[in-house]
Design a protein that fits this description.
Blueprint (H helix, E strand, L loop, with lengths): L13 E4 L2 E6 L2 E3 L1 H35 L4 H29 L8 H19 L1 H16 L5 H34 L5 H23 L7 H22 L7
Antiparallel strand pairs: 1-2, 2-3
Helix pairs in contact: 1-2, 1-6, 1-7, 2-5, 3-5, 3-7, 4-5
């Protein structure tokens, strides 16, 4: 069911018609039913995304500690680097997105490209022991004989963590920009309140049913959550439509 109609002249954020209240966001118009469908897709994407980010935030500090990484490295990999990525790359990428014009809009094309790359980076983090061990046995021992297996795993993990921070930074911000473009201003506060509720429920569910198995079933958890997130998020991108931009 199409719940948004691009190409309609700009109207106030909400207006009463013979069909009931119609909500507007730019050239998009929603009935109450259409707004409910939009909410389901956006909130579903937020639920999956909270699971997705929770895995990274809970696993990386624990595993870096197992590899005897310093507290400084753990701090940089789990927090500081993400801030640096935002400072140095976000202004240019946000301007690029603002000026993009495609048949899919200006935000969704970025999400389509970056979501799979972010999942691949997360899988790299979760499968770092296996991937780095194979690399060390077949390639690393010849290129850097003095590098231990643990050092190879730590290096591989850091590369994947940096990649995750970069792609996830684009993903998070493009998703927030999409909200601003497709959600009517009159409903924005309610949307944000529901996002907070859904994020809290997703965090509770993750801690209750997934976190206890994170270290004992690492590969299965990473692959399962990554695939779940990718499917839900791409379905959201397919069913949420942007309007027209100047």
């Amino acid at each position: 069911m199409n719940f948004a109609s691009p190409g309609v002249p700009h109207r106030p954020a909400s207006a009463s018609t013979g069909e009931g209240t119609v909500y507007s966001a730019g050239t998009l118009r929603y009935t109450a039913g259409g707004l409910a469908v939009l909410s389901v897709w956006l909130l579903g994407g937020d639920f999956a995304f909270t699971f997705f980010e929770s895995i990274f935030g809970k696993f990386v500090p624990l595993y870096l500690r197992e590899l005897h990484a310093s507290n400084a490295l753990i701090g940089v990999m789990t927090g500081s680097f993400a801030g640096l990525v935002n400072v140095f790359f976000l202004p240019g990428i946000s301007q690029w997105s603002d000026r993009t014009r495609t048949g899919l809009g200006r935000r969704i094309p970025f999400l389509y490209v970056v979501a799979p790359l972010t999942v691949l980076a997360l899988w790299g983090v979760g499968l770092a022991p296996e991937g780095a061990s194979w690399f060390h046995a077949h390639v690393g021992a010849r290129l850097a004989p003095g590098l231990s297996r643990g050092g190879t795993i730590l290096t591989f993990l850091c590369v994947c963590v940096v990649s995750f921070h970069f792609f996830n930074m684009i993903l998070v911000n493009a998703y927030n920009w999409l909200l601003r473009d497709v959600v009517p201003i009159a409903c924005m506060s309610r949307f944000l309140a529901w996002f907070r509720i859904i994020s809290t429920l997703a965090s509770v569910a993750f801690l209750r049913w997934v976190f206890p198995h994170l270290m004992t079933h690492r590969r299965e958890v990473f692959l399962g959550v990554g695939l779940f997130y990718l499917v839900v998020f791409l379905l959201m991108c397919r069913n949420v439509r942007e309007g027209e931009y100047p």
